[in-house]
Amino acid sequence: MARSIDYGNLMHRAMRGLIQSVLTDVSKNGLPGAHHFFITFDTTHPDVAIADWLRARYPGEMTVVIQHWYENLVVTDEGFSITLNFGNNPEPMVIPFDAVRTFVDPSVEFGLRFETHSSDADEEDEDIEAAEDTGQHDAQVVSLDQFRKQ
Are 71 and 90 in contact (CB under 8 A)? Predict the structure, then answer.
């Protein structure tokens, strides 16, 4: 089999690295100016650690906002942990970068979407590459229209 450059995997790692760099800077220096983040992640990822009541309320995916109140933001090579406020209840959470589906900073109209390819039998006809899916994800720019202030 001929060797080829896996641009999708390279892009995936670069975009995860970008999120890691941004969150590392925020953990050290705080959010600059009007910057804030909407981060959507897969709550079924085995390394996601959230409260049971949050997992029950968001069984597939959840979007968190890092803006006015957050504590204990710690960034590692694998992901980040943070404490966020839900109805005056601080909740610690651990989110691996591999669980992140979207990362949006609406203050500067920047966003990333990480596409996943499922290999479920029902989807085999729709996505022929699903059988060859190596578990890698492609990064794409996400539309920010849904986050614009009216």
Answer: yes
Q: Are 38 and 65 within 8 A, CB to CB?
A: yes
- d(Cα 40, Cα 64) in Å, to the nearest integer? 6
Signed CA dihedral, 97, 98, 100, 103: sign only: positive
Strand segments, DSSP code E, in 7-120 are 37-42, 61-66, 70-75, 79-86, 89-96, 100-105, 110-115
- Give the residue-averaged pLDDT of 111-123: 61
- Rounded CA-CA distance 57/115 in Å is 23
CB 101 within 8 A of CB 41: yes
Contacts of 76 (CB under 8 A, 6+ apart): none
State how far the Cα of 88 lies from the Cα of 105, in Å rounded to an integer: 24
pLDDT in tens, 69-98: 899 999 999 999 999 988 888 999 999 999
